[in-house]
Design goal:
Layout lengths: L2 H8 L8 H27 L14 H14 L1 H7 L4 H7 L5 H17 L1 H48 L20 H10 L7 H8 L3 H13 L3 E5 L6 E5 L1 H8 L1
Helix pairs in contact: 2-3, 2-6, 3-6, 3-7, 5-6, 6-7, 8-9, 8-10, 9-10
Length: about 250
């Protein structure tokens, strides 16, 4: 969408030909001026003796000016992160508020340049947090999709087992004189195994509330105690888990 189309969509007066280039040039000039002025102000206000830049090589004033320019150039990114419409107003002349937006923008550039190191650090931290949150949301979505797929497979296995004249798991419960000791997670896993004839490790993990890697250890422990067994999916031929008669007896005991 062009700047003029954006202006029409927002009810703002469209720019004349080349107006958006003038606005862009003005923003660039404000970034440079704000960065230099703010950086120089930080240089004048800095304690020369205790400054973190005191031990750095090169001209001190130049370092402040460069940091100020970098911080000032990050202001558009900051406005995007906080979902501000200042630049939108500038580039669309929305509601005739361009002058006010220019003043706010240059003020932000001055503040960013004056506190350049803290501002850049804050922007970097916020971006990293958003990246981590996006990755976490994507991972959570993948886990939910995987759990939904595993549930569908388990339901298909269950329908196949019900239609088969021979059940693929041991019927009844074996009476255990000395039932093996079970911790809470193992007991929950056994309960999950009773929900369907064939269970996937992912499905059991979701029901018990433990991680996929941890449930593997739990199931191996149950198999060693003879309470659960590895079997094969009647539909996909993949690995499935089922409860044994000893497992049923351990729950009922």
């Amino acid at each position: 969408m062009s700047v003029n189309n954006l202006a029409n969509a927002t009810g703002a007066a469209p720019f004349a030909e080349g107006g958006e280039l003038i606005a862009l040039g003005t923003v660039v000039v404000l970034i440079v001026v704000g960065g230099l002025v703010g950086g120089y102000g930080a240089y004048l206000a800095e304690d020369r003796e205790s400054s973190e830049l005191a031990s750095y090589g090169g001209p001190r004033k130049l370092r402040f000016l460069v940091l100020g320019l970098v911080a000032s150039a990050c202001v558009p990114l900051f406005l995007s992160l906080v979902r501000s419409d200042i630049l939108g107003v500038i580039f669309t002349n929305a509601r005739g508020q361009r002058l006010e937006s220019y003043l706010v923008f240059v003020g932000l550039c001055l503040i960013a340049a004056f506190s350049a190191r803290a501002f850049i650090g804050s922007i970097s931290q916020r971006i990293l947090q958003q990246v981590e949150q996006a990755e976490a949301r994507a991972e959570q979505a993948n886990l939910k999709a995987e759990e939904a797929q595993e549930t569908a497979l388990e339901l298909a296995d269950e329908r196949s087992a019900e239609a088969s004249p021979e059940r693929n798991h041991e019927e009844g419960a074996a009476t255990l004189e000395n039932p093996p000791a079970l911790d809470e997670v193992e007991r929950r896993a056994l309960q999950a195994l009773t929900k369907m004839t064939f269970r996937t490790a992912t499905g059991i993990a979701a029901d018990t509330g433990v991680s996929r890697s941890q449930i593997g250890e739990v199931l191996d422990s149950l198999a060693t105690k003879g309470l659960a067994a590895v079997t094969q999916s009647p539909t996909t031929k993949g690995v499935r888990w089922k409860i044994t008669s000893r497992g049923i007896g351990a729950i009922e005991g």
